[in-house]
Amino acid sequence: MKKIKAISLLASLVLLLSACSSYTSTSTFNGSRTGNKDQFIMDYLILNTTDYQLLELEEGDIVDFDIVSKSGKVNVSLQKEGEEPVYEGNDVETSSFKVTIGESGTYKATVTGKKAKGSVSIIKEGNSNE
Predict the structure, then answer these.
(1) Full-model pTM
(2) Which has more pLDDT, 97 or 129?
């Protein structure tokens, strides 16, 4: 009788653990997101999708990137429609840097994650021409 209970308990535990790992690998996003014309900020425990924010940028604007990559892969880009990206990084590691905008317009900030955990912050700081 004890053997049957132990096997039943073990089987239940295996099912429970496999359900938890299945949830983690199939979830697309678990975290927070903030965005407007000046910033795009994401903090996530799980990122298995692509998200973007349109930013209104002027020539000379300085855009601050702060990326924290704890696990998985994250790709980040900033691009004006129909043009080459002003920044594009694949499988980006933890880093902070700045990009100066050369031409005014609407730019698309895109973040794509695959089993990613961490954060991405893309914020317009100011204008270098002022």
Answers:
(1) 0.79
(2) 97
